[in-house]
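Progress narrative, Year 2. Work on Redox-sensing transcriptional repressor Rex from Alkaliphilus hydrothermalis advanced from sequence curation to structure prediction during this period.
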Amino acid sequence: MNRDFSNVSMAVIRRLPKYHRYLKDLLEKEVYRISSRELSKLIGFTASQIRQDLNCFGGFGQQGYGYNVEELYQEIGKILGLNKTYTTVIIGAGNLGQAIANYPSFIKYGFKLMGLFDINPKLIGMKIRDIDILDLDYLEEYISKNKVEIGIICTPKEVAQEVAERLADSNVKGIWNFAPVDIKVPKEIIVENVHLSESLFILSYLLNEKENLQG
Ligand SMILES: NC(=O)c1ccc[n+]([C@@H]2O[C@H](COP(=O)([O-])OP(=O)(O)OC[C@H]3O[C@@H](n4cnc5c(N)ncnc54)[C@H](O)[C@@H]3O)[C@@H](O)[C@H]2O)c1
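Result:
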């Protein structure tokens, strides 16, 4: 049964991957039970924040016992949809596209990379870990034939919008966009942007702020 979390704020949802990561680490260390206070020390959120966050999903903890780490890990995984599998393609098989294709962990969470697409004849026909780099001309046909659900955009920013539109017209459900541009697609397609430079600029700001405070 699909539970409805549509009224849970995105701020809470965006914290779930961090809970998931810490719970995985705990399981690897064979820690099976944890209080919100102990979790708070590890994660850096307050204990009351943790209780509030997890209560949004029905509350997993038990007074006097804390959280069952395995159960919480599995449940957060389910809320995040990590118990499902997704078919993906990468568009743009340059530095970043190849790095993502070479990263083995996404498959562990159910994201199956089917193919990479590029326009560069030198790359087309090559393989990254057994996965073909294909000609962009076949994108729509391939997506339809293989029921691809997610397109990962790793092209230069100048062509990202055009690529996004082709993905949208091919009926992908989601786009993971790494190009530093805000792409526009029909609202039924979910877009998640990863703008690495924005994070880097925040680091730069914080470094400068620290220097200014130190005089
Ligand atoms: N490399 C990084 O660490 C990094 C970090 C943050 C963001 N990005 C962004 O990710 C994108 C890719 O970066 P990169 O370093 O891999 O660049 P890159 O130049 O190495 O690769 C881009 C690839 O896209 C291909 N391409 C160009 N037009 C295309 C099209 N219309 N359809 C399909 N493929 C096309 C090119 O042939 C090339 O292989 C850029 O938008 C960049 O700003 C990269």
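The first helix runs from residue 10 to 28. Residues 91-97, 117-120, 123, 136, 154-157, 159, 163, 178-180, 196 surround nicotinamide-adenine-dinucleotide (CB under 6 Å).
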